[in-house]
UniProtKB/TrEMBL annotation:
Keywords: Membrane, Transmembrane, Transmembrane helix. It comes from Paenibacillus barcinonensis. The chain crosses the membrane at residues 12-31, 43-64. The keyword Transmembrane helix applies. This is SigmaY antisigma factor component. It comes from the Bacteria.
Amino acid sequence: MNKLHYSLDEIPPILLAILALMLLIQGTWMFQDARKRDRFPWLWGLWGITSFPGPLLIYWLVVIRTDRKRHTRSKRNR
C-alpha cells in the first residue's frame, strides 16, 4: 500500500482519541461563541467537528475578525 495512506488499524487508538477530543472541543467552542455573537451557531458547531483547524481559521476570519472591526468602528463614531 502507498505509504501516504494509513488504515485505521495502523493509527494508535490514543491518537484517534486525542483527535476526537480536539474536534469536540473545537466544535463546542465555535458553537458557544457563535451563539454569543448570534451568528449561525449550529452551522459553525457542526462544521467545527468535521476537521481541524480549517473551520476554526475560517470562523476567525468570517466572524471574530468582522465583529472586532465593527466594534472598533462603532467606538470611533462615538
